[in-house]
Amino acid sequence: MKRLSVTLLAFVAMLMAPVASADDIGQVKVTSGAVHIQRGAERLPALVGTRVRVSDTVVTGDDGSVGITFTDNTLLSAGPRSTLVLEQYAFNSTTHDGKFNARLDRGSLAVVSGKIAKQAPDAMVIKTPSSLLGVRGTEFLVKVEGAE
Amino acid sequence: MTRAGLRHGAGSILLALLAACASKPPATVILLPGQDGTTGAVVVSDGESRTVLDTPYATARASGGQSIERRTASEQEVKKDFGTTLASLPPRPSKYTLYFLLGTDQFTDETQKQVRQVLVEVAERPAAEVVVIGHTDRVGTELRNDQLSLQRAQRVKTLLIPLGIPENRIVTAGRGEREPVVPTADNVDEAKNRRVEINVR
Predict the structure, then answer these.
(1) Residue B99: which domain range?
(2) What pTM does this model have?
(3) Do both B134 and B119 map to the same domain?
(4) pLDDT by residue (tens digit) across B181-190?
């Protein structure tokens, strides 16, 4: 009986787990304070395990920060008062060809680039209101002034 | 439009452009030393000029309209301005290489130990994902090796599921012969290249 309930629990947990989709490009791994994901008109809470997609906008509040791991192993975190738009993303796990464009409208980012940037220079670009950053690897920080 | 009018028009456009640039918030970029001991590079451009950051803590500030300012940031500044942001970086993916007993799909003793470590990591990491990546040597065509490497990865996936890793947490990929451990000429039989890599992230 006990065994049955454990099995049942595992089954229920499996049903409740977020459904994976081919559109998923990364997953939230760390979250703290107020963070949400704007997907069109939908406002999704950013929880550990929430999957992100192309065109999602990641928004953090005054006390918010969030860390996302992408399917090419790019790690990215946004600090408080940030708005980050995931404009373009494609990754071929066989050839490692891909494209990663993100736009930081305000706030701050830490980035550890992954397989897309390693495969081709300039395959990963971060835009800020005043500059374009071509990523040739691997770890860097970005801050847009004025959100303090 | 008269010539004077044209000049006036061009002048207004220039002024409007400058105003647009001036109203854009400046952005600072700091290159960090990589955790693997190497430092990469970031090319910063503002539409008019560009600069390449390729040394630890090299910093560029673009403010639109003016030239890009360069300097070197201090570690203290990084901690102060980016402490919260850096603290939220996800854990680095880990990497394991699995080998099989010759001609079988049985893990070697060493690989069995690694698989146990994978299980521990899956339990500990937030929203853990297991990426299983197959590799081949250079015997056979590229296309065939793409298929074979994916089959190897899928085979390992079926071995991991009964060990307690949920199926929806495992993704597979086949890299074919693109990423040899031991580089060889084409059609060389090399056991070290016939392997499966696991990333836990």
Answers:
(1) 94-200
(2) 0.87
(3) yes
(4) 999 999 999 8
B76 with B166, same domain: the answer is no
Interface test with A, best of B79, B88, B172 (most A CBs within 10 A): B88
**Number of CB pairs < 8 Å for A and B?**
174
Pair (B128, B176) in one structural domain: yes
- Contacts with B55 (C-beta within 8 Å, 6 or more apart), sequence order: B31, B39, B72
Partner residue facing A140 (CB), from B32, B126, B129: B32
CA dist A91 and A119 (Å) reads 11
Quote the longest CA-to-CA distance of chain B. 86
Assigned fold of A22-144 = Jelly Rolls (2.60.120)
Tokens of B146: 């793409």
Chain A residue with minimum CA distance to B167: A14
Query: Quick check: ipTM above 0.85?
Result: yes
For residue A15, the model assigns a pLDDT of: 45
Write the single-letter amino acid at A146.
G
**Token output for A28:** 């939230």
Q: Where along chain A do its domains lie?
A: 22-144
Domain count, chain B: 2
